[in-house]
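User: Run a structure prediction on this.
Assistant: Running it now.
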Amino acid sequence: MKKIGIPHSHETGWSIENQGSTQITNFIVNLPQQTNIIILAPILPGQKGEHKKELLNYAKLGYEKFKINGEYYDFDNIPEIDKNKKMKFN
């Protein structure tokens, strides 16, 4: 099966391509100083529980924000989390 066209970002217009870790690192290193970036990674994928202890540990490691089910939060404003509901933490 052949693919049609080249995918592009609807926000920037840049073409979307596979990149290796070296390419990504070089791109980030070459950004202007004081540029803010967001790097997301699943930290507690689909687990039930409040996880306040784990979140506070990330704050101690120097992280500034986290994301739960698509919404961003500061570590000094951790929302109430239903311990019986599965959540997606980044």
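Strands lie at 44-47, 65-68, 71-74, 87-89.
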